[in-house]
Structure formats: structure tokens, C-alpha cells
Amino acid sequence: MSAQIPEVRSTDELREKWMKPEVITGSEILLRSLLLEGVDCVFGYPGGAVLYIYDAMYGFEDFKHVLTRHEQGAIHAADGYARASGKVGVCIATSGPGATNLVTGIATAFMDSVPLVVITGNVISSLIGTDAFQEADITGITMPITKHSYLVRDVEDLPRIIHEAFHIANTGRKGPVLIDIPKDISAAQTLFVPQMGPVTMRGYNPKVLPNKIQLDKLTQAIAEAKRPFILAGGGVVYSGGHEALYEFVRKTEIPITTTLLGLGGFPSGHELWTGMPGMHGTYTSNQAIQQSDLLICIGARFDDRVTGKLDGFAPHAKIVHIDIDPAEIGKNVPTDIPIVGDVKAVLELLNQDVKRANQADAWRAQIQQWKNEKPYSYKDSDTVLKPQWVVELLDETTKGGAIVTTDVGQHQMWAAQYYKFNQPRSWVTSGGLGTMGFGFPSAIGAQMANPDRLVISINGDGGMQMCSQELAICAINNIPVKIVIINNQVLGMVRQWQELIYDNRYSHIDLAGSPDFVKLAEAYGVKGLRATNKEEARRAWQEALDTPGPVVVEFVVSKEENVYPMVTQGSTIDQMLMGDE
Amino acid sequence: MTIKNTIAVLVNDHPGVLQRVSGLFGRRGFNIESITVGQSEEVGLSRMVIVTIGDENNLEQIEKQLYKLVDVIKVIDLSSKPMVSRELAMIKVKAEPPQRPEIMGVVETFRAAVVDVGTTSLIVQVIGDTEKIDAMIELLKPYGIRELTRTGVTAMIRGNA
Ligand SMILES: Cc1ncc(C[n+]2csc(CCOP(=O)(O)OP(=O)(O)O)c2C)c(N)n1
Asked: What SUPFAM superfamilies would the database entry show (chain B) (predicted)?
């Protein structure tokens, strides 16, 4: 079931070969530098401004280049690759329209702190600023959505810039870095001197180790707390801090919720885990936040989808915020104990002194009671497929062991609610930007990073149509992603809001005219299956699992289903619509 | 409570830095009242002085967000310390010969200077803190201001700090 990823040749040998200083072109410098940074796979799309780069890639096999069918596919794939592997995702596009097609993907990665190095071509230096053919000021356009960016003006700067870009992308609060390379720079020659050592940049020194005094305050606060609660986010996964978090919970026995991006950062089967918080979170998590007297936020940023109405959020709690990005502390919620540092480093230090929260026994019992009384629930049916049931089927048959990517909408929330994640980097979803079109291409990237794991991409019938062209690259590269479409024939999440908030005024949500997804898959040479009831669903899904290559499985589900619980905008998170169960 | 804050930002003088900094203010909804940029004491670094209006929380966020920019090396909140702040204005004021002595009187009291004389106008140059310049403009208004340009504030902490 492995995707066809070439073995990266012996790294030492390669290094030796590439480390030799030599006079070469900017394009060759780029390729060598990528190899030296450990890149084994890039996603891209050629065009005039990057032709020298693509020419240098002719016959080049030291890393794999995946030709997507749209630049949006390329950047989401690079993003999925990064999220599922912890390595930097790399994407290449040409100037002008190629570059602007990346914008949504760059913003997606920026909002979720995903490390990417995005390489764009630009028109030749002397034409910059003249509205030349296919010119766009991509560094200007993307400034608010990149962690940093470079417009290369001299080929001699290229090795340093690439080395810095990887460093910036994957340290501190991670994020996308753009390198814009004018065409003449990719053609120009210079003596290449490889850059491998540590990077020193005067304005960039992320703080890794926390302040000891603050840690002691937290240890003290835990000892005193009667109702402590942990809110853990994506930072746990990104820092590789999941084991330290597990240890922290084991020692303190403090109940814990993980945000949408934190799913998998803590095992969902653990008795102290309370499910996801926020707009579609569990009753238990939201009650626990509201009633806690000590809220320990770890690598999460108090997103409004988590907090609901800020005024009235966690009203009784002393707030502790652990984050690598100092600007997050106090941004949305006033903080009593701020701790700036790498989540993993902070937790490891804390674990040396921290003790069981001894005053919280009644609280633990209360949390267990909520968990038992108010789990996620839905009304199942034997006549029509329920989307929640479909996710449960995927979970049971894969024992929670797959990498799951999703698109955006109701199916995303059901996947988050009903698939049980037990490992970090097995959940890939667009949280901050909520980007439709992300789900399927990100799965391609996740599979490229993990050739031997099962990758399932869960999509709505709406979002699937935003990047379905990438079926071609699954077929041609035999990328064995299992592409699930939860087809409710509408823009489901929008339908839900129109039902609950706009008085059943269903404005422009009908997806009539969608393709026959089975035929669509077949048109690309991908196996397509459809299920409309439980029996077909079980059979089709098993067939998909048994098929070595990519498969599209369409589950035709009930149109009216809503995601519950739900906190509507303007409410505090304990004011939840529970649905009819 | 909203107050005026003056901050100095030491940055790499790379292309696009001004855009990054001003873009950050725009995107995050921070107010820029004035912004000045120029060389600093060190080759390769520029110093920006930015006057903003906001509350204390705002100011803290501005500082933290600025530090996230890779090209920002140091941010100093000048208004929390005793500082010297100056701006320069040039005012082209309508001045027929009979009004000139009166205008010259204003110029002298403010220790400003006349830097150009036209047949029916004068250009007055004034340097000082914002209040002084506001006051000067008020006094010249009755004569008719044809054109006005101000540099925005630049500032430093007093003493050896
Ligand atoms: C690019 C983009 N456009 C619009 C939206 C707004 N939006 C959020 S969910 C949603 C409906 C998604 O419908 P579908 O893909 O069918 O998934 P479902 O909600 O039915 O599971 C829409 C339109 C978005 N998130 N992203």
C-alpha cells in the first residue's frame, strides 16, 4: 500500500556530493539547498518564471516532485505533509497567477502555525514593478499571512536565504516563509557555498526555556486548586510535547480537554480526557472550563470558536497560559500566570516538581458524572445513513489508527467528535482559516510523508469539488488515500446555520448539479464506490480498505442532520444547544 | 483609557520593512498617528518612531506583535520614560507686505525661522514638540495657510539611558 516515493539516496553521500563548493546556477543552488535541508518531496506547478528551476529538475531524482493539477492542491499537499510529519513542507509555483493561487494555502498554514517554505518565481529583476507579463507582487500580497518572506535580489544571497527560511519556518511559533526568486536570479551563476551551520539572526531569537518563577507559581496554584482543568492545543503536537503532556496529566491527575488542532495530542481513551471544547465541543469540556478555578492553557490560543463570548469565559478561573509566542499571552484573555516557552520544554521542567492536585477529588468525580451523562450522541436510523455513524464505522474498522484529514463543514466536526485519536500528527484539519478544498490535497501530502500508514480523507460534497482535480495525482502516483465523501447534497454547515439562526431561510446551499462522484473517480482512473445504507456502507468501506490504491467512497447520508452540541455566536460556552439526541 | 504612546523600533533596513511594520498596524487595527523612519547609529539598521493611540493593552500587543517580525530588533516604549520628542513643520502662510512684521513677530516668539520669501507668501519652519507646532499653526491660521507639511514625531529617552 506504499505510495511511490523514491528512496532518498544515502544522505551522507549526498551531502558530500552537494557540499562541494562549485560555480552553479541559482536553480541548482535551490535544489542542492533543499536537499541539504533534508527535503524529500516537493509539490509544485511550473511556468515561465520558474522554468530554469524546472530545467534543473529535469532527470533529477534526489527528491520527488509531485506535479499537482492546481497550485492550491500543491500548497495544501505541502501543508498536509508538514502537519503529518513535523517536517517543513515545500511548494513551488510560478509568478503571477501561479503565486496568487497559493494565497489561500499560505493563509491556511499561517493561521495554524504550519511550517512551509513556499518558493515562487518572479519576472526578471529589471521588469519588477513594470506590470510585466505574469507579474504579481507576491511578497507584498502575502506579507500579512507569512511568518517572513524574501525577495531574492542577488544570487549570492540564495543559499543563506534558503537556510534561514527553513530555520524560521520550523522554529519558535512555526509558519510559512515565502522565497520569491526572479527569473534572472534562477539563471545567474555564482560560487555555491553550502550553508549548514546554526543560523544567527539578530531579530529572531525564539524563547524556548521558561521563567522558573512562573513555573513555581503554577506548581503552587495546582496544589491549591479545587477545580483545575487543562486546555491543550496544537502547540502540544507541534512541539512534540505529547509525551510530556501525558506525564503531566499522569502526575497531576488534572482533567484535560484538547482543542480541534490539539486532537491526538492526548489519548482520547484516557479517563481524564473530556473531548473537544468550544462551539461543537462536549458538554463536559465546556462546563469544566466555565466552572474551573484554575485553567491551564497549553499551546492553545483562546480562539473564539473555543471561548465563545469572551466576556463570561472561565469566570472563576485563575488563567495560566503556556505558549511559545509571547504575543498570544493576554491577546484575548487576561492571564494570571504567563509562561513563555516551548511547550515540550516547559512541561518537562514542570514534570520535575509537579504533584497530584490533591484537592480536586470532588471535581474529578463531577467531571466523570458529566462525561457519563452527556456524551456526544445522535439519533441513529436504519433507513438512512447518519454521518456520525459513518465516522464511527471508519473509527471502528481502523481502530483509531489512521491519519485522518478533513475538509471544512459538518463532516469535519463529526470527524473531530466521533473518530478517536490516540496519536499526535494523525489529525490534519484546517482550524484557523477553515479552508474548504483543504481536505483532499492535504491527505496527499500526509500520505507522501507516511507512505506506509493508512490515510483517510473525509470531505463534504461541497468541499470535495474545490480540489477534486488532484484525483489525477493519486492515480498517477498510486497514492493510496481513501477519499471519503459524506454526501448530504447541500452545503451542510451553512444549511445548519440557516436553519438555526436564519429561520430556515435556505439561501443557495443546494448542490444539485454535483457530479456522480463514482464516475468522477473512474474518469481519473481511481476506484469509486457508493453506499446508501449501512450494509452497503460496511461493504464498500471494507472494499476500500482492501484495495491497494486510491479509492473514493461516497456515503449518501441524511440531508437534515445537524452538528450538536452547538454554541451559537454571542453565547458563553456553557449555553449549548444539545439537539434532540 | 486611551492615551498617546510613542515607541521606537529598531529594524533591519531591508526592503519592505516599512510595509511590514505599517501593514501590521493596519491588519491588527492599531492606530498610527505618525511614523518616521531614518538611519540609526548603526549601519544596516533604521529606527522608526511611531506615535499610536490606544489603551495599555493595545500598547502591550503592539510591542509583542512587532517583536514577531523577523526584521524587528528592538522595541522601546518611549512614553513610559522621560523623553525628548520633536517634529518639524513647514508652513506656507499668506503674507502680503503689510502683514509681514506681525508674522515675523510670531516667528520670533516661537524661535521658528523663515526659510523662503515669496511675493505674497512666506515659508515658516518650526521645530518643537507637537503642542508647540499646533500652537504655531493656530497663530498663523488667521493669515491664511496655503500649505502645511509636518514630519511626524521623532524622539529619544533623556539622559544616559
Ligand atoms: C473556501 C471556503 N468557502 C466557503 C466556506 C464557508 N463554508 C463553511 S462550511 C461550508 C459548507 C460545506 O459544505 P460541504 O463541503 O458539503 O460539507 P458539509 O458541511 O455538508 O459536511 C461552507 C460553504 C469555507 N469555509 N471555505
From this structure: ACT-like
